[in-house]
Description:
Layout: E1 11-12, E2 15-23, E3 27-33, E4 39-45, H1 47-50, H2 53-68, E5 77-81, E6 88-92, H3 99-104, H4 117-136, E7 149-152, E8 155-158, H5 187-190, H6 199-215, H7 225-234, H8 247-253, H9 264-274, H10 285-299, E9 330-332, E10 340-342, H11 370-374, H12 379-389, H13 392-395, E11 414-422, H14 429-448, E12 454-462, H15 467-479, E13 483-487, H16 492-505, E14 509-511, E15 531-533, H17 542-550, E16 557-563, H18 568-583, E17 587-593, H19 600-609, E18 614-617, H20 621-633, E19 639-643, H21 649-655, E20 663-666, H22 678-688, H23 696-711, H24 720-727, E21 732-733, E22 738-739, E23 753-758, E24 761-767
Parallel strand pairs: 11-12, 11-13, 13-14, 14-15, 16-17, 16-18, 18-19, 19-20
Antiparallel strand pairs: 1-2, 2-3, 3-4, 4-6, 5-6, 7-8, 9-10, 20-23, 21-22, 23-24
Helix pairs in contact: 4-6, 4-9, 6-8, 12-22, 14-23, 15-16, 17-18, 19-20, 20-21
InterPro entries: Kinase-like_dom_sf, Leu-bd, Peripla_BP_I, Prot_kinase_dom, Protein_kinase_ATP_BS, Ser/Thr_kinase_AS
Keywords: ATP-binding, Kinase, Membrane, Nucleotide-binding, Signal, Transferase, Transmembrane, Transmembrane helix
Binding site for ATP: 43
Amino acid sequence: xxxxxxxxxxxxxxxxxxxxxxxxxxxxxxxxxxxxxxxxxxxxxxxxxxxxxxxxxxxxxxxxxxxxxxxxxxxxxxxxxxxxxxxxxxxxxxxxxxxxxxxxxxxxxxxxxxxxxxxxxxxxxxxxxxxxxxxxxxxxxxxxxxxxxxxxxxxxxxxxxxxxxxxxxxxxxxxxxxxxxxxxxxxxxxxxxxxxxxxxxxxxxxxxxxxxxxxxxxxxxxxxxxxxxxxxxxxxxxxxxxxxxxxxxxxxxxxxxxxxxxxxxxxxxxxxxxxxxxxxxxxxxxxxxxxxxxxxxxxxxxxxxxxxxxxxxxxxxxxxxxxxxxxxxxxxxxxxxxxxxxxxxxxxxxxxxxxxxxxxxxxxxxxxxxxxxxxxxxxxxxxxxxxxxxxxxxxxxxxxxxxxxxxxxxxxxxxxxxxxxxxxxxxxxxxxxxxxxxxxxxxxxxxxxxxxxxxxxxxxxxxxxxxxxxxxxxxxxxxxxxxxxxxxxxxxxxxxxxxxxxxxxxxxxxxxxxxxxxxxxxxxxxxxxxxxxxxxxxxxxxxxxxxxxxxxxxxxxxxxxxxxxxxxxxxxxxxxxxxxxxxxxxxxxxxxxxxxxxxxxxxxxxxxxxxxxxxxxxxxxxxxxxxxxxxxxxxxxxxxxxxxxxxxxxxxxxxxxxxxxxxxxxxxxxxxxxxxxxxxxxxxxxxxxxxxxxxxxxxxxxxxxxxxxxxxxxxxxxxxxxxxxxxxxxxxxxxxxxxxxxxxxxxxxxxxxxxxxxxxxxxxxxxxxxxxx
Length: 773
């Protein structure tokens, strides 16, 4: 719980607000005192959504659904007003954690799964009773998952009816719309077959919840959403170590055929007969202690605390505060504490440095005139920019869409803080540094443009490509109200480690090299995410592979290598390529190799023995290089395809002369070979003394996209939630791609490119649909 903030209301209806319980994409949840003295949880819609007629209708439906369900295991609705200036609803307050917090939370109690069979049995019995009440009311919950189950001493409580509907409810039953949470969806939900989603779908989700609690793992694995959906549809559930008494019930719930699944009543009866359990003492002891501690904390609050007062800002809320103009720029230090280290003195955003980059010392802030801008940085770099590359920012100021930019500012421009979080010194440090450098050039361009109503302050943090460091930094950035948005992280694993933290805080995150999210369409506003993923999802790399194999290569027999060292990515890529080739009347065989030592020679021998005329390798640089060399040694002369996982100098070095001829599918461009990006490439090389690396141009576009989002309405946005919403409304035409959100594909789906290795160098072929392949 957090104190109330300056702009928070003190009362809604008859409810006196006491503390903040949390914030999400659509609003804030408060702890409140009901008229009779009991505690309540009050959800309030954010002001930015209050004028949205469609959202008010959805919110009104949620209230109506909650009123129709009567069960002791469903959190009761106490009051609501969908027509208030700030729409709100109040439910009974449950001081316990969610089941997700207990099972998955990094700071949860020691009672994480697997739970004892008796505890799982009681959980299942009572949730089955709750679902029976939902189904008897003629509804389908559609999002049964650990995060929507609160734990109380006397039993669980099912919450969140934001996407509940009648089985024939038209808004969410149209074909092609996936609604819910991957990993706990039914196969019919994963297939987006809205008309088939009824009570059996909730039973399947209940089976997933029970399996997760009983075994400690999700029954259809973790990782990318697309891979989880595919496994849900095609694979049998994995139930390692599940108690024998529970297994028949759980497997029955997880039947692929809805008609064969038991009803909620039958699930409860089967669990009662299978396991003898004490409903009075059903929770694992650590969970009971956690609930007791939280209950005591609420009771100990005593009198209502005063609202926390923060320094006023332009719009009056603490969340909208921005960094002071002359505050030192923070960079990650190398000490064990992880605390930021400050550069001495006020510095220009363009001159922000990170120790690992070993660049010239930061210089003092200069006036934001054209001449002042050109002298930022080291003396040598400034001279080169002025002579050959610096003026391009000014010559191209008209690139923004007409009418989309801010109005000319005659007064002080609002300064907004953006954090760069990425791998600057780890295994992917070359990619992270290229992104940071591209971002710095974009910040310099924004700050040099007097027509914009805002300036940007860039803070750089090195997470070394370590998920634990990423999570720690994410928590710090979330707590720092001066940070309006985050650029990064660099890798999928780091993003996944911090995703929940950023999403819960509604902190806008723009990524350019992450390919794991955005797999499920978010048709309902309650599932709004704060992540703008400017790179297509990894699974879409199958498209350029298939185009090349079916086109220029005209392959008839393709040897696909699923390198399990790459996890779900390799399986998904090979599966989609195989299906695509099959639809084109071509044969493709998948061979899996373990994540350990790769016997490249034996693998090459299999490709030759299969009489393949093309190979696709899904692994990383060194393993792809070893396989390339082995193929050449085995006399293979067919087409050879890999992805961006194999892109880099380590592949070229490992493969040697055998690298030539390989075609690689990527989600990034070569800025030096892209007409729209050549001026950027020249400025980059002049500033940093090297060609822009992968994702440098994409990071440049990401910052300018953020600047367009924050400044396109005339007055700068300074509240995180408002930025998240406008990200979906702005179209930005960049040097590497056009950024525009669609419900079907997220922010981008066609930024897919091909390279070919020629003379042991990567030759850019262009966007895959227009490349000569």
